[in-house]
Design goal:
Layout lengths: L1 E3 L5 E3 L8 H18 L10 H4 L5 H10 L2 H7 L11 E3 L5 E4 L1 H8 L5 H10 L6 H12 L9 H29 L1 H5 L2 H17 L3 H15 L32 H4 L2 H17 L16 H4 L1 H22 L4 H22 L4 H9 L2 H5 L1 H8 L2 H13 L5 H9 L7 H14 L9 E2 H17 L10 H8 L7 H13 L1
Helix pairs in contact: 5-6, 6-23, 7-8, 8-11, 10-11, 13-16, 13-24, 15-16, 15-17, 15-25, 16-17, 16-19, 16-20, 22-23
Length: about 500
Amino acid sequence: MIKMSSKETVEVKLSDGRDLTELFRFLMEENARMEEELGPVEDVVYDNIEKSLEYLPDHFKNICRDLFELNKLISNYLFDKPDSSSNIEYNSQEEIISATFTKLIEKATEEGSSEISNILFHTYPVYGTDSELLKMLINRHNVPIPPMMAPSEIGVFHAKKIRSIQSKVASLFKKWVRQWPGIFMHNSSLRNTLQSFLEDLSSSTSESFVKTNCSTILNCLESLEENKEDKTSFGEMKIPPSPVLPKEIDFKTEPLLIWSPVEVARQLTIIELELLKKVQIGELLEKNWEKPNKQELAPNVVEINKRFLNVSLLYLSAIVNQSDPNNRVRVVKNLLEIASECINELHNYESPHVIKLVLKSDAVRALDSTCKKVKKSTTHKNIWEKLESLYDPQFVNIKQEMATNQTVVPCFLALRQELTQIDAVFRDVNESGLVNLVKHRATSDVIEKIRLYQENLALFHPVRALSTYLRANDIKADQEELTSKARTLERE
């Protein structure tokens, strides 16, 4: 109800008795002021009423929210809250340095947001669960139509706002399933929830782009198989080289004396890449591999660590168990040639790291005569010195080597050390309780490297007899006993 007095004053009241006179006067005065400063103002269609309300004084905001039924919409929809210091922070270069989980997803579904989406999918287990992320992405997809829009305005809003957001959400679903398929393989509840949402969405819309997106994501989910074993596959039109087999195999002779270093390096690359491919995102965060329940939190990282120890003992046993000093020299030389083949030809930087630590062990140091004989060969001496230089304590040189070469298998400990250092320096959240993007941006960079390494292929034929030996699953050697035995050998 609007009443006009003789002095042209306006009184505005709703049928429920609420007095909107003050708000009405403010809007009339503001409109007149803007026309005086800017000239006639054309009608503007706002695609986000909540953001428009930020121009009003605080005491008018809730009145308008009630009028437009925004309070009801806001309670159901988590996104499009105005940016403020309570939900997002930027640095002087306009780079996001902290945000809420919700605001991160909002920014990840805006144009030009690939960096934010990478950080999100590489670090979200630190500040959210799989289920929470899925629910938020579904909520973000279900963009509500603002109230009091004309049909023509709804069409514009749908074309410019809703379609863009829904396309980005669909891209994030595809990215999530493709980058971390193990999450959906091992969490049937998560997979079923996403499948149900996509099937319902596809059946309830006539828009072809939505149906296409749903079909693509559903196909990705359907391609996942429970407990699927990761097998070495061959690239299209690429034929793996024939294995280098020994002329005959004497099962009483140490395999490292029989098999070609070239073939040993190939089989090691297959094994180590296979282990790396199994590592899941959550295993790489918050030093889960060091926690009391590490077997549950980071089983595949634990397996890589276990293998590192076992294969070290395998190599030490191969050296120390040779009573013939000439055979000890041959085993050490073969290990050096294996390391050289891995570095120079296969770009496998995991096995050479193991071999380097074996050569620095107390057991090998005790074999002074053996080491001197090995180093009489200039070739083997150079390889030995390269290993010592390449794998420095801080991994500076090996990181540089991996960065400048097309690495197939990385030195996993070097990458794990990077994650450990980031955890030591930065907090997960800042003082305001916002997700610390300074830390998670650095973490994301390391995890992205690991994820890309996981896409590599080892284009070699598995050789079961050699592979079984190199997996070192049944190694029962003890390092102290091997060191004691090595000292006895050299005294003889």
